[in-house]
Design brief:
Layout: H1 11-24, E1 32-35, E2 41-44, H2 53-63, E3 68-73, E4 84-89, H3 92-100, E5 104-109, E6 115-121, H4 124-128, H5 132-137, E7 146-150, H6 158-168, E8 175-179, H7 185-192, H8 195-205, E9 213-220, H9 229-243, E10 245-250, H10 254-263, H11 276-282, E11 299-304, E12 310-314, H12 318-324
Parallel strand pairs: 2-8, 7-8, 10-11
Antiparallel strand pairs: 1-2, 3-4, 4-9, 5-6, 6-7, 9-10, 11-12
Helix pairs in contact: 1-2, 2-7, 3-8, 9-11, 9-12
Main location: cytoplasm
Subcellular location: Cytoplasm
Function: Catalyzes the hydrolysis of methenyl-H(4)MPT(+) to 5-formyl-H(4)MPT.
């Protein structure tokens, strides 16, 4: 396992042209650019700027380290919500865990007492290597410029940008921070694009050998934005937990592939069956009290490339999804 990332490419090199294109087309994508006092570039995709679905789609591909593709589709599995986002990558572990996973916790409290907290995702994580995950993967990237995506509704303080730049070993002016509030269109889109990442992370939680996951595809409905954070957070989670579908291709025997399929869906969790916002509230808003087995796509198929046999488990929940999406009868 320690050598799984030995031959992986530089995700920062792959992402750089995507980030520059996003910045170059900021006006047409309804984004706002802002420079912090230290020179760090901020791309606002929903705080003071309206952003949109296309901006969120492109930001989602940046989160995937330039290794994934996200497209809009017309088959979601739900008659009442007919469109979806489709995600695939030929390098699922690096794409989903090494870049897209929001694993870098960033916090700062000013002398005046104001607080900022965000989870960072994107290629900057692989430069900093702050997470134990990178030791497990055996991967660290090198680059002179990087970016990080944060699901926040406020601009980060300069101290956070300085902290990120220092950890990544780059100049602050070579750092780009992309901000996607969960309550806006770009935010709900880039979260939906995480449907495959959620499955890969679940496989990691189940201790399935990551080197045996050779390819993957995911599809999920994109949640409508909520007017407040709790509504938006609930809807974006439910889009995947109740409506996400993933197909993994694995290099292992039939029994291992079947076991993975059986254990992976969100339907296996003790907390499954209620809207996510309701579950979150029942645990007094303590995220870590929620059963970690809940965070999975609703339906999973696993194909063994050795035998060609496929195994599926889980099910979609159209009734509950319509309720959490606020869909009128």
């Amino acid at each position: 396992m320690s050598n799984i990332g030995a031959q992986w490419p530089s995700i920062n090199a792959l992402c750089h042209p995507l980030v520059e294109a996003l910045v170059h087309e900021a006006e047409s994508l309804r984004l706002k650019l802002h420079d912090l006092d230290n020179g760090t570039r901020v791309v606002d995709a929903g705080i003071e700027a309206p952003g949109g679905l296309e901006a969120g789609r492109r930001i989602g591909e940046i989160c995937m380290g330039g290794l994934g593709c996200a497209t809009l589709g017309t088959v979601s599995g739900f008659e009442a919500w007919p469109w979806s986002v489709n995600v695939h990558t030929a390098t699922p572990i690096l794409c989903c865990l090494g870049s897209q996973y929001a694993g870098w916790s960033l916090s700062h409290q000013s002398e005046e007492g104001s607080k900022f907290h965000a989870l960072g995702s994107g290629p900057g994580r692989a430069l900093a290597g702050k997470e134990e995950l990178f030791k497990e993967l055996g991967y660290r990237d090198k680059a002179e410029a990087t970016c990080l995506v944060m699901e926040v509704d406020q601009y980060p303080p300069v101290a956070i940008a300085d902290k990120i730049a220092t950890a990544c070993g780059i100049k602050p002016e070579n750092l780009t921070l992309i901000l996607t509030p969960t309550t806006r269109l770009a935010g709900v889109m880039q979260i939906a694009i995480r449907v495959l990442e959620v499955a890969i992370h679940k496989a990691h939680t189940l201790k399935f050998p990551l080197e045996q996951i050779v390819d993957g595809y995911g599809v999920t409905p994109v949640a409508p934005p909520g007017g407040d954070f709790m509504t938006a957070m609930g809807r974006t989670n439910d889009a995947i937990l109740l409506g996400g579908q993933v197909h993994l291709f694995v290099d292992c025997g039939d029994s291992e592939a079947q076991d993975l399929a059986k254990q992976m869906p969100s339907t296996m969790s003790r907390d499954y069956g209620r809207p996510f916002a309701e579950i979150f509230k029942s645990y007094r808003y303590d995220f870590f009290q929620i059963d970690p087995m809940l965070f999975s796509p609703a339906k999973v198929m696993v194909t063994s490339i050795k035998s060609g046999k496929s195994f599926q488990a889980g099910s979609l929940n159209p009734g509950l999804l319509a309720k959490t999406f606020g869909l009128s009868p």
